[in-house]
Design brief:
With about 60 residues, the chain is mainly alpha-helical. Helix content is about 50%, strand content about 10%. The chain has three helices and two strands, in the order ββααα. Strands 1-2 form a two-stranded antiparallel sheet. A hairpin with a 4-residue loop joins strand 1 and strand 2. Helix 1 packs across helix 2. It starts with 5 loop residues before the first strand and ends with a helix.
Amino acid sequence: MNLDEIVCPCLGTTNQMIKDAVDNGATTLEEVQQETNAGTVCGACLEDIQESINFFLKK
């Protein structure tokens, strides 16, 4: 997975930022949103954020 890839274009949230949130204990979309604000503007990226969360939780 490309950690520099932007998952949430509205806020510029990258896979690395999502990984950091998961590494800090976030396990749900809502927890990642609280930590990164990703997906809170237009919501078009919610599925992509969830896929990233699932990927990092499996590691």
